[in-house]
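User: Hi! I'm a student and our assignment asks us to look at how structure tokens line up with a sequence. Could you show me two examples?

Assistant: Happy to help. In each example below, the sequence comes first and the structure tokens follow. Example one:
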Amino acid sequence: MKKLMVAALIVVVVIGAFAQPMKMKKGVPEKMIEERCLCEELQLTDEQVTKLDEIQKKYQKEVIKLRAELKLANLELKELVEKEASQKDIQKALDKVNNLRAKMLSLRVNKRLEIGKVLTDKQKKLLKEKPAHYFLRGYGFPRGMREGSKQMMGMVKQRGCFGKPGFGRIEKEIRILRDVD
């Protein structure tokens, strides 16, 4: 019986090794593959793109530090709760976590306001006119066609703006400005 099970397992593994990914159906509209680029839609100048990139880098360094501190503070809080420490110690750890979250929120708001100063009134108006999901990454991909899914195999999805990877985060931040003004 064991030999039969081992043989069946080997057959399954070998078949799985030679399996090929599913091929996409013909006729997938190119529009689904393309990603809207915020820079092009808003007609950002090279100067604006440079300023936005600088803003992103400036705040990114601070956020990385705060996130690391927040993870440690959350871990410490979790350990205190598990140890059933005194309420005073738990409250102190909780205050630390809340202060770090408040700092991160403050940074996020300041970043958005700074980004808003770079944009023209026309660009801000365009942001407010578009639906909320318009500028998000992956626009146009139906459910199940997100990056990394089997249906996406073989499809190339461009990232960023003007070929700059990581610019998508700024695109998302700018989109949120529609609520800040």
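Example two works the same way, sequence first and then tokens:
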Amino acid sequence: MFDETRGVRKKIAVIGAGISGLSAAYYLSEDHDITVFEAEPRLGGHARTVMAGRKGDQPVDTGFIVFNYVTYPYLTRLFDELNVPVTKSEMSFGATIDNGRIEYGLNNLRTLTAQKRNLARPAYYKMIADILRFGKEAPEAAQDDDTTIGELVDQLRLGHWFRHNYLMPMCGAIWSTPVEFVDQFPARSLVHFFRNHALLASGRANQHQWYTVKGGSIEYVRRIEAALRARGSDIRLGSPVQRIERHDLGVTVHAGGEAKLFDEIILATHSDQSLAILGEAATGAEKAALGAIRYQPNKAILHCDPGQMPRRRACWSSWTYRSQNGNVGVTYWMNRLQNIPDSDPLFVTLNAASDIPADKIYDEVEFAHPIFDKAALRAQGQIREMQGQNRTWFAGAYNRHGFHEDGIASAMHLVERITSAPQIIGADNGISEKEPAVPTSAQFRGDIGVVDAVRPRRTFSLACFWCV
């Protein structure tokens, strides 16, 4: 079919229904015939909400949790279009190291000094000074694409405590990556990300206000699903793709014992999964680029065990790095992140540093997160060059920094090229050109009440960030 105002209506297969696949399908479905193939029995990918708590009535996110209106321009635009209800989230970072030998929080002066022993440790004062100096000097120093963050720390002569008790734990928590891999992160990319997300401490109130979806991320997933079905899109759950064939007539997708022909295909799965789907039909360039990105498995446990938090209650933070007996993990305090009453304690721990009693566990799931070393960054450029070749497109958060906004950003690039309609926001460097006012989607609706639609306030914190 040809619409003079919109062009040729294509049949497009979207494989994978995480944020990348769902947003690509949503923005293409108005003008094209979309079929979504999802191997799992549900939509959403890392947008995963579980009902938990003492009465089983608390919606808790175990993957994607928070966002802001400064560095998530695509996601917040989508939420505004879908009227997704959101609420403010409280963000803070803390650490409990070596079985509680060192504990601190970076939310305010009280949490900084919660462990009184730190006040007598010169190394602790130097760590705080190094955090501030890193924020000031790192952007100018990180100009070489080949320099790793470990090399940059050495170059700036930042101390042992800064490296091992702050930077490595923080980066490991942000990217859900073992600390031994953090040293190999490309410095320029990491510092650029820190700057854009207001994570470079400068000793002043410069942090973004964070938000979470009211009722859990499932709320936005349901709205996308409803929009797709209303537009006649075909959604196939529990339908893993066995293989695809690319030829002159299009792309044939084999799934569920059926073969279906499409004009274009969008692989919105992890890069290694996309390579497996391509199989022997993958080109040399596809094998090299998609195969260069490594993944780290992370086990997430939703539970009510406060034993995963710091010994000192004053150090409890929205997300806490914990090392114990050589094991490291990160715990997210869901009561603070998603405004759950403290009377119903809920936590999500990635790679628990100690055992969690079985009777305190509500849910377990394993995620895979990309490791952003220099090989991965080179692969990103190679994948950009491959886009659209052989009627094949690659979407996924692995194309940028690995977060929810990066997943939808990768989809919007494909949507723009497929539709020839402008989609890219600003310089598309992970941050809006200017800080926007909170749009309609940031207002509470119905029986929730209304939040003032004002510019997001900034809250003091040396560091406060989390998202998956």
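Here is something you could point out in your write-up. The radius of gyration is 22 Å.
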